[in-house]
Specification:
- This is Oxidoreductase, NAD-binding Rossmann fold family protein.
- Residues 3-118 form the Gfo/Idh/MocA-like oxidoreductase N-terminal domain.
- GO terms for molecular function: nucleotide binding.
- The chain has two domains: 2-125, Rossmann fold; 127-283 and 313-323, Dihydrodipicolinate Reductase, domain 2.
- The chain is 37% helix and 24% strand.
- It contains ten helices and 14 strands.
- It has helices spanning 11-22, 36-45, 57-63, 78-87, 102-113, 130-140, 159-163, 180-195, 284-296, 299-323, and strands at residues 2-7, 26-32, 52-54, 68-71, 91-95, 120-123, 147-153, 200-207, 213-221, 226-232, 241-245, 248-252, 261-265, 270-273.
- The strands form two sheets. Strands 8-9-10-7-11-12-13-14 form an eight-stranded mixed sheet, with helices on one face.
- A hairpin with a 4-residue loop joins β9 (213-221) and β10.
- α1 packs across α9 (284-296) and α8 (180-195) crosses α10.
- The longest helix is centred in the C-terminal third of the chain and has 25 residues, at 299-323.
- It is globular.
- The two termini are 38 Å apart.
Length: 330
């Protein structure tokens, strides 16, 4: 297994570490946290007693025994930490959204160009899952596309703090937060993966007192159809997602965590189940694929993912501009 360092000791980091272990892809050898107690607790919780703890980021990159770092810090910190990691000779897996804007993305791309032996992945885990690929194949088999509606809305455990007058990181423009930057990234990844880059976009957002979006509806305009994106973190939604082609419709139970994929035909009289049961840990697929690309030096596959990440970054930024949302990172 490849040696892994982590930045961030939250639940999503733990899920990735467990996925990496299940896939026999990465072995956790170094933990960075701002406090030693949190690093030690993380190692205990995830049975990584042999890993080394660091509370200084520079020391972590210089002394840490790892080749790849997984970054799951607040969004606004991704850029500087990924840049520092690349300059230290590490491969990078950075949680989505990888970067706050195209300027940050372009800077990272320039660094990568000078370091062709290193890899950087955006951890948009759902695009690597089996049901995403099943949906993609079903969409590609359609004779034409007449549009789509893709939805992902989930009430955030941190929204109560906003209602109480606080400003948690995930809802702060200082930390590049908001619904678009979190759940919206999933549906943008869906649209760009399945239909390509749109010709134009617009976003009608519900702006919170913290200056970022709580939920909203975005439209991606293509030459012959539109794709509607519905996402948010202030309510729960149980809407299906649909891709339209005349009398045939591909139906997903959720565009962000795809559990079922079905094809409806002939006025709904014919329904075909296409999907399969998802894995218990949704990060296993991405951990496997990232490790394979690094081990096999699969640059073709890697650059396809990097280009997809760059396009998603551009579309998300355009949507944010449409809604007038400005981050400190801008």
């Amino acid at each position: 297994m490849q040696k892994l360092g982590i930045i961030g000791t939250n639940w999503i980091t733990g899920q990735f570490v467990e996925a990496a272990r299940t896939a026999e892809a990465f072995e956790l050898t170094a933990v960075y946290s701002r406090t030693a107690a949190k690093a030690q607790q993380f190692r205990t919780d995830y049975e990584a007693g042999a890993a080394q703890d660091y509370t200084d980021l520079a020391t972590f990159f210089i002394a840490g025994d790892f080749a790849t770092v997984y970054i799951a810090s607040p969004n606004s910190l991704h850029f500087e930490q990924a840049k520092q990691a690349l300059e230290a000779g590490k491969n990078v897996i950075v949680e989505k959204p990888a970067f706050s804007n195209p300027t940050e993305m372009a800077t990272i791309q320039a660094i990568l160009k000078d370091r062709p032996d290193q890899f950087l992945f955006e951890a948009a885990r759902h695009v690597h899952e089996a049901n995403f690929k099943i949906a993609q194949a079903a969409i590609q088999a359609l004779p034409t596309i007449n549009g789509a509606t893709l939805a992902y809305m989930k009430y955030s455990s941190r929204y109560d703090a906003v209602l109480a007058g606080e400003e948690p990181n995930i809802f702060s423009r200082h930390f590049s937060g908001g619904a678009l930057q979190d759940l919206g990234v999933y549906v943008v990844y869906d649209a760009v993966s399945w239909f390509g880059a749109p010709e134009s976009v617009d976003y009608q957002a519900e702006i919170l007192p913290t200056g970022v979006d709580g939920k909203g509806v975005a439209t991606l305009h293509y030459a012959d159809f539109d794709v509607t994106l519905i996402f948010g973190k202030t309510v729960d939604s149980y809407l299906n997602s649909e891709i339209y082609s005349g009398q045939t419709t591909i139906v997903l139970d959720n565009a962000g965590t795809i559990g079922t994929v079905s094809r409806y035909e002939n006025d709904g009289a014919q329904k075909t189940a296409l999907g399969q049961a998802p894995l218990a840990n949704p990060m296993v697929a991405e951990a496997t694929i990232f490790a394979e690309i690094i081990a096999n030096r699969d640059t073709k596959r890697y650059h396809e993912l990097l280009q997809l990440s760059q396009t998603v970054n551009q579309v998300v930024y355009q949507l944010r501009q449409s809604a007038g949302i400005v981050f400190d990172a801008d």
